Write the C-alpha cells for this entry.
Amino acid sequence: MNDTIVAISTALGVGAISIVRLSGNEAISIANKIFKGKDLSKVKSHTISYGHIVYNDETIDEVLVSVMLAPKTFTTEDVVEINCHGGIIATNKVLEACLLSGARLAEAGEFTKRAFLNGRIDLVESESVMDLIESKSDEARKLAISGLKGNISKLIEKFRDNLKDLLSSIEVNIDYPEYYDIEVVTKEKIATDIKKMQTELQNLIKESINSSHLKNGIKTVIIGKPNVGKSSLLNRLLQEEKAIVTNIAGTTRDIVEGEIYLDGILLNIIDTAGIRKTNNLVEKIGVDKSLSMIEDADLVIVVLNSNEELSSEDKEILAKTKNKLRIIVLNKSDLESKINIPNLDNVVTTNTLTEEGIISLKEKIKELFNLEQIKSKDYTYLTNTRQISLAKKAYQNLLDAETSLQNDNPIDMIELDLKECFDSLGEIIGITYSDEIIDNLFQNFCVGK
C-alpha cells in the first residue's frame, strides 16, 4: 500500500460533476503536477481550491480540488478529490493525466480496503459501505447505515468481551488454583454463562436471517396451471401491464419479472409459464423452468381458479410446493365458487378486477414475513451469508463447549471450544482474517470506492 491509487468515484456518463479521487503518500504531489492554481502542498487540510487541470500544456478542465491530509480521511492516507465537469471525455482525460503523473489505477474497492487495513473501519462496516451503495429500498438503506455506524460491530465486541472475561477466569483458576481471593469458576457457572451466550447468539442469527429480506427483497414465484390468472395477478401487483393476458392457454411461455415495494420491502416477483402436460417444445421448456424456480423462491404463490374443481395439475402443484413457504390464492372470487380444497394453511381469496381484490394477498405476505415487526427493530442485524455463517460456527462452538461440560471433559478442552468461538466472532468484524478472504470480499466493490 505504498503506492498512490486513483479512480473515478462517480458514475461515468453525462452529468454536472465527476470526481476523480487519489489516495496515498504521493496524492498531493501528483495532483500538484497537473493542477494550475494554488500550491496544494501549502493549503490547509479539508479545503477546496479553484483552478485548472493542465497536462502537456493542454488545459483539460476547470476544476475544484479538495485536499484532505492524513489521518483524518476515509483511507487515513492523504486524499485528493478532483471535482471536474461531468462527462466521459473530460473525466477520463483527468484520470489519464493522474495516471501519467505517477498514480496507479485503483482496484475494485481498494479505497475501502485501505480504510479497513489501516484500521479506519472494520470488516462489517466495510461491507456496509457497499450495501449502502446497492440498497434498493429505504429499509435496506437503514440496515446499511446501522452497519456503517458500527452497531453490529459493537454487539459482536460485546459477545467477545463476555467470552474474554470467562476465558480469563478459567485461565486464572487453571494456573493459580492455590489463590483463594479469586473467583472460583465452577462448571455450573461456565454452563450458565455459555447458555446465556447461546440464547443471545441464536436470537441474533434468527433475526438476521429473517431480516435478510430488508436487504435482498423477497423472491416471489407465482405458479399455477394455465388460465388461472397468474399474469393478471402479476399485472395487478405491479400496477402495469407487464405480462400478456389472453384467454388462450399457454400464453406465458417464459418467466416475466417485476418489482414492487410492500411496506418498504422489495418483492422480486416472477410470473411463470402455466403448469400442464404439453407436446409443444417451447411451452415444455417454459413449464420445466417454472418448476425449477420453486426451489430457490422465498415465497411461492400458488394460484387456483376458484370457479373450477381441483384438477390433476392443481394437485401436482400443491404436492410440489408443500414444503415451501407458500400462499394459496383462490382467484376469480367474482365468479361462483366451485373449488373444494383440503384443509391448507395460508389460503386467501382474490380477484384481479380491482386493486381491492388483492389486498388480502398483500396482508398475508406482510403477516408471513413479519414485516411490521422487522421494521420496528433497531436494524442491528448480520447482513450477509459470510457474517451469518461465522455466527453459526460460533454458536456451534458454544454447543460443543456445552457438550464437553455435560460429558465432564477436562476444563482445558472446554476452553478450546470457547477460544474457537472467540475467533469465529473475531472473523465477522475482521480482527482475524486471511488475505484471500479480504481480496474476494473487496473485488465485488465498485472501482473508485
